[in-house]
Write a structure and sequence with these properties.
- Helix content is 38%, strand content 18%.
- The protein is α/β, with parallel strands linked by helices and 264 residues long.
- The protein folds into two domains: 3-125, Cobalt-precorrin-4 Transmethylase, domain 1; 131-247, Tetrapyrrole methylase, C-terminal domain (Methyltransferase, Cobalt-precorrin-4 Transmethylase, Domain 2, 2-Layer Sandwich), CATH 3.30.950.
- The radius of gyration is 21 Å and the shape is globular.
- Mean pLDDT is 92; it is low at 1-5.
- Keywords: Methyltransferase, Transferase.
Length: 264
C-alpha cells in the first residue's frame, strides 16, 4: 500500500501511553495526549476493566457503555487484528491502551501497528511515560548505545545464561543492557544478577517509576553484595547493567569490521 493512501480518508491508529503509577493527580500525561484520548470512542485494549478505569480517571466525556472496547493481547489472532484494521480503513480512529506504559513496548500493540502500516494507515504514537526510557535516564548508565531485552527466562539456569550473555555483549560493545521481570520474581532476579555478574559490572534497578515511592539504585555488583536488598517484590521494575568494556576484544572486533569493509 502506498504512502499516499494514508490520506485516503482512513482512520488513524493512536498509541496512548497510560500512567505507570496512577494517583489522584495527573503528573505524567501531557494535555495533547489527554485531548486525543478523550476524543476517541473506539479502543483496542489489553484489559477492559483497566481501560475503563483509565478513561474514567481522565474524565472521558463519553459514557462507558457507549465506548467500544476490543481485546488486544500478544496472542490476538491475525484475523481479529484485520477486523480492527477494517474499522480504520472505513474511517474510524482507533486508540490502543495497555495496562501501564506505552503500547508496543513490552506490552501488546506491535502486531496491530505492523498491520496498520501494511494497509497505509497512519500510526500516531503519543507522548507519555515509558519505563525503559525513564530507567535509562535515572540509572545513568548511558543511552548513546543501549538495548532493551524485555523479560528474562523464568528458569534459573536459563536466566543466568541470559545475564552472562547481556554482560558479555555490554563488555564487547559498550552498550547499556536493560531488562525486566515479572514483579513477583524481582528479588529472585536481583539475587541472580548479583551472584552471576562480575564484581565490577554496574547493576541498577528502577522500581515504581513516577510513583511517590519511586526507587532508583545503581552501583557495582560488589556493592550490591554488601548492602541489604530493597523491597522491590511485587512492584514494576526495570533492571539495567553495564559491564567494564573488554578493550582487547572490542579492538579485535573493530579490526575485523574494518577488514571486512575493505575486503567487500
Amino acid at each position: 500500500m502506498s504512502a499516499e493512501s494514508i490520506e485516503a480518508g482512513f482512520g488513524k491508529l493512536f498509541l496512548i501511553p497510560t500512567p505507570l503509577s496512577r494517583t489522584g493527580e495527573n503528573t505524567t500525561l501531557p494535555a495533547a495526549t489527554l485531548e486525543i484520548a478523550r476524543s476517541l470512542d473506539h479502543f483496542a485494549v489489553e484489559n477492559i476493566r483497566q481501560a475503563a478505569s483509565f478513561l474514567q480517571w481522565i474524565q472521558h466525556p463519553v459514557p462507558e457503555f457507549e465506548v467500544h472496547f476490543f481485546p488486544l493481547s500478544k496472542s490476538t489472532s491475525e484475523l481479529r487484528l484485520q477486523e480492527y484494521v477494517n474499522l480504520m480503513l472505513n474511517g474510524t480512529d482507533l486508540g490502543v491502551l495497555t495496562d501501564a506504559g506505552c503500547p508496543g513496548v513490552a506490552d501488546p500493540g506491535a502486531d496491530l501497528v505492523k498491520q496498520a502500516h501494511k494497509f497505509g494507515i497512519k500510526v500516531v504514537p503519543l507522548t507519555g511515560p515509558a519505563s525503559p526510557i525513564l530507567a535509562l535516564m535515572g540509572l545513568g548508565l548511558g543511552g548513546q548505545k543501549f538495548a532493551f531485552s524485555g523479560y528474562l527466562p523464568s528458569k534459573a539456569e536459563a536466566r543466568a545464561t541470559m545475564l552472562r550473555e547481556l554482560e558479555q555483549h555490554s563488555a564487547q560493545s559498550g552498550s547499556t543492557e536493560l531488562f525486566m521481570e515479572t514483579p513477583f520474581r524481582n528479588l529472585e532476579t536481583l539475587k541472580a544478577a548479583t551472584s552471576t555478574l562480575r564484581m565490577d559490572t554496574q547493576l541498577g534497578v528502577a522500581a515504581n517509576l513516577t510513583s511517590p515511592d519511586e526507587l532508583i539504585i545503581m552501583c557495582e555488583v560488589s556493592e550490591w553484595q554488601r548492602r541489604k536488598f530493597p523491597d522491590i517484590q511485587k512492584i514494576p521494575a526495570i533492571f539495567g547493567l553495564k559491564a567494564a568494556q573488554d578493550v582487547q576484544l572490542a579492538q579485535k572486533l573493530k579490526r575485523k569490521a574494518v577488514k571486512k569493509k575493505f575486503s567487500a
